[in-house]
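Reopening: protein-glutamate O-methyltransferase still failing for me.
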Amino acid sequence: MTPAQTVHVGIQDGVSIPITPEEFAWFTTFLRGRTGIELKDGKQALVMSRLDRRLRHHSAASYKEYFALISGGRGEEARIALDLMTTNETYFFREPQHFEMLPRLLPSVAGQRPLRVWSAASSSGEEAYSIALTLAEHDPSGLWEVFGSDLSHRIVDTAARGLYPIEAAQRVPGHLRTAYCLRGRGEHEGFFTFDAGLRSRVTFRQLNLTRPLPDLGTFDVVFLRNILIYFSSDTKRQVVDRVATTLRPGGYLLTSHAETLMGLETTLESFAPSVYRRREQV
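Support: Ran it again with your exact input. Result attached.
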């Protein structure tokens, strides 16, 4: 083979097809329009790793060919592609400082019953159940509820099932694992879930935070973590404003420690690192 010769390697050969600059640009525009997520240059490998199996499934010879299937933004394949691109790593009691902080926030919002906490980017539910476990330990009255939401329909279904690999339970503190976790048997061998009393206080719903929200009622605490980093400054401001309107005056919003609201004009004031409070008078 001379240096001028090339070999086309297709999906049938088991090698990922590269994404061209034009294809990547099209997909970044598509993803931004549907989710508000900004996919920066350098994320080509991420797109390829997440969507490679879908190209194989449809025997598509290029990303252009696959993108033709989802270009309308509707239909099952578009939903699958968006689910694959918006599902992020999560685990129980991620950034544990927030779960240590939560009980200290409760007295100032305890006058409202039931106490309501929203996990606004809950992914597969680990954050929402971590909140529920914390509330169960520190507010045994049971007069509280946790609401979880995510962009992905598929991942919301996973959260609602509340069934996790047994290895994931190692991140749950031992005393809470003993009190609330149940080991699966039979077809659920190798998995665990939570007792019915805890699960009954946790509900999930598919939501797109970059779109107008339905009537969700009001919340005492909102966890808005590990999602703002994917948005442009303008989209981030819109999402924070939208979510903040669901907070009761005096309620709290928590972001990840890698995120900040600095520079945004909001109804929130800094309370502690990555913790913000809605002003009493807005």
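The two ends are 72 Å apart (CA to CA). If you still see a failure, please send the error message rather than a screenshot.
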